[in-house]
Amino acid sequence: MKRLSLLFLLILALVLSLAVPCFADAGEMATGPAVTASSAILMDATTGMILCGKDVDERMYPASLTKILTAIIAIETLDTDDLVIIDDEVVNTYTGWRDVKFSVGDTVTVEQAIYLLLMESNNAIAVALAKTVAGSVPAFAEIANARALELQCTDTHFVNPNGLHDDAHYTTARDLATMTRYALSLPLFVKASGCTAYDFPKTKITAARSLTNTNWLLTGGHRLYVGNELRDVLYDGVIAGKTGTTPEAGGCLMTAAKRDDTTLIAVVLEAGKSSDGYVSRFVDVIKYLDWGFDRYHTVKAMNRDALLGTASVTRGSTLEVNVIAPTDQFVTLPLSQGADSLTYQTELFGALPAPVKAGETAGTYRLYADDTLIGEYPCVTANDVPEGGILSRFGIPDAKAYRIFRTAGIVCAAVAAVAFLGLAYSLIANGIPRNRSVFRKRSRF
Q1: Which end of the chain is less crowded, N or C, counting CB atoms within 10 A of the terminal residue's CB?
Q2: 222-227: long-range contacts (C-beta < 8 A, 24 or more apart)?
Q3: Which of 251 and 315 is assigned the larger pLDDT?
Q4: Cβ–Cβ < 8 Å for 86, 104
Q5: Distance CA 344, CA 298 (A)
C-alpha cells in the first residue's frame, strides 16, 4: 500500500510538472515588494506559477530549509510507526541549547521525528532520519540530490540532511518553492510544519514537553513593522512553514498560506541581519504573501474528463474516439479576471492508428484569459479502441461491418432458400407425369 501511494504521488507530481502555465514566463518576472532578502520567490502552489521574485535562480545556502527535502524523503520512504534509533553520530550533531537532547540508544517513531524536524528544526534528528533511510549521511545525500532532480530542482546540491553549513551545500529559491509545492501533497508534512504545539515524549536526558513551532507567522505574539504598519506577525491562513538560520545563510523562511481556493508559497533566503535576530525574514514573507493575495487568485479552468473533441482512428473497431482533459486544471488569474474570462482551443494530432489505449495523448488544448494565453496542456483519449476487423482497412467500423455481414448472410440464406425451393418444385413437378403414365399403363391390363 505504501508503494502504491508513493507511485500515485509521483505520477501526480509528474502530471503537475507538465502543466506549468506559460504566462509565468511571459515577459519579465514581477519584482514584487521590496524585501531585505538576497533571494526571494512567491509561487502559486496549485499551478506552479511564479508571481514575483528576486534572483530566484541564484545559488544560496538554505540553512534548515534543507529539512523540507529531508522530510519529503523520510515520509515517502518510512512508515510513521517505524523506529528511529539514536547513535553516536546523532548525539554528537550540533543542536541549539533549547533543542531536545538524545542519548545513544534512545528511539522515537518516524512521526515524532518529523514533528521535531519541522517544528523545532532539530539537527540531530535530521541525521537520525537520514541514517534510518539510507544507512549513512553521504548515502542519504545521494538520495536527496537524485530526488531533487526528480522534482525538477536542477540547481540543488545537498551534502547533509540538516543544512549545517558546507560550501558545497546549496539550492535556489525556485527549487525550494518547487520542493515545497510537492511537499504540500504529503499530509504529514503539512500537519507537522503547520503545527503550533506537539507533545514530544521524554528521552533519557530531556523531559517530555510540548514542541513549539519556530515560525512566528504560525505562532504570533511578535509585533514588527511591515512597511509603516506595526502589526502582529501571526498571519491568516498559514498551513505550513520552515525556518532556517546560519551565519553564512542568514535568515531563511518558507511559508505557505491558503485563502479560499488560493494557496501561495513564499521563500526568502539571506534575509535580515544576525544583530536583529533575522526577524526581517518574517516581514519579507508577509510582504510577499500580502502582495500575492491582493492581486491574484487560483481559478478552476477545466474539469477532469471534460470532453474536448473527437479524434479519428484508422483501422479501429470504431473510427473515432472521445478526447478529454486528463486532470482538473487550475490557473492563476488577476483578481479582476474570473472563470468567465476563460476560453480554450483544442489542437489534435490527427488520426490515431489502432489499437488506441485510454489515456493516450491525442493533442493539446490551450487556455486563454480573454486574449492572453495562460498555458498549454495535454488532452487524452477517453477509452480503448481495439483493432477492427477486415473491413476496418476500408474505413468501415466493426458495428457497420457486422450489419453488412449480417445483411449479406440473410441475403445469401434467402437466395439459397429460394434456390432450394425452386429445385424441389422442379423435381416434384417433373416427377408427377411419369408416375401417372405408369399408373395408366398398368390400369389397361
Answers
A1: C
A2: 222/279, 222/282, 224/279, 224/282, 224/283, 225/283, 226/283, 226/286, 226/287, 226/290, 227/287
A3: 251
A4: yes
A5: 17
